[in-house]
Write a structure and sequence with these properties.
The protein is an all-beta fold and 445 residues long. The chain has strands at residues 4-8, 15-16, 23-28, 34-38, 45-46, 59-67, 78-84, 100-101, 111-113, 116-119, 126-133, 136-144, 156-161, 164-170, 177-183, 188-194, 206-207, 212-216, 221-226, 228-230, 237-238, 243-248, 254-259, 265-266, 279-281, 287-295, 298-306, 327-334, 337-343, 358-364, 369-372, 374-375, 378-379, 391-394, 399-404, 412-417, 423-428, 434-442. The chain contains no helices and 38 strands. The radius of gyration is 24 Å and the shape is globular.
Length: 445
Amino acid sequence: MKRFILTFVAAMTMCLTLSAQQYVMKITKADGTVVELNADEITNVSFVNIAEPIVLAPHHFDLTVTVGKQGGMGRDVTTIVQSRDRLDSGAEVDFKNVGAEINTTYTMESIVRGKFYYQVPVSEDRFVKLQFKDNQMKVVQAQPFRENTYNCRQYTHTWLNDNTLLIMAANGDKNAIIWTKLNTDDMSIISEGTLGISLASGGWDSFTTSGVLTYRKSDNKLFYFYYNKKGTGRKATKEDKFHVAVINAETMAVEQDNLSPFAAETAGSAYGELLQQTTFFDEQDNLYIAAFSDTSIGEEGKLLRIKKGEFNIDADFNGFPNSDGKLLTTQYLGNGKVFCYSRHDDSTLGTTIDSYAHYYSIVDLKANTRTRMAFNGTDIPYSSGRFSQRSAFDAGENKVYFGVNTETAQPQIYVYDVKTGNVSEGIKVAEGYYFEQIRLLEDDK
């Protein structure tokens, strides 16, 4: 009998039923091995999409620490950055005479992509593209402000493609929202303007400082989360519900201005995502954003969602179960898993930046569960520090590197293996420093 050989490519998605007995299936695996099956051994063959392995460019980690107390939100503290090739093993990290102090010229609040940092520096007169190389912060390119001006630390951003960066913030009087598009190849200003959003009626006299901005590539829409205020500073009165402005990314025209169904505020509304990640998309193109609501006992964290193709918050969804305080950071790990950093609002712990009241957990969006991170069967102790990205997800290794400042021990880096769920100890940071940030950056080629 003549044999027909069917060869299939792994990237295909299909369902095929074989009934002709003269066929033989030949499968070539990714490792080059070949498997042959007779048709009488097969009733149905199904192919499913399997994500391509994620291969990252050669990369390293930049660690940021402060001296004297925790940093962030404009605290005037000594801030030191040091590069490390590995965080899972090696000698204790000491910052004495190793690394660079950045607080006098630059800020910890920064945009990171590829090999570079982007920010408005302390001088507040330009945009800068920076590279931390040889343990020094070096200026790659600078672009003086043209029409719109921005304060350091007080703006939000999103990427429209690999080299188009959009910056947005309230203006100096806080009565309008300004925006600037930058070509990050040379840091030239592509265009800038003012959003078509007006202050709400009823005595509202200012916008939130930065708001939170993100981009949905599938329909070329920007989502800008903001609210109106009365007064200034900590005593300002805020709207109960935040707004979701939907913006055409090409024309910057505001197409919708929707009100959240939840009485809540988005995390990071004062500084966008300069310090920590609060938004992400899942594989189905659903958009998620960290938020919180005021309660009688503190602040209740929420993980809210805008479904694929929709334009307002889903009133029937909250992806942060069993909340016991403010949700601060979210990182999507794939397959419905979210790495979270939050604060436990307990009067015995405190709610300040320096309070030992913060901890990590894994949210499973599919199971609607949340599990606190533990090491050797014991919950990792509460950490101090709130406003910074204290974890980095290495998608190539499928591991999360995260750090804590506990009350009774020196700062410690842990490593979470996403596939196995195992948590191991990484390197330690020398005593006398307050751990602040882990950033993953590409190496120079």
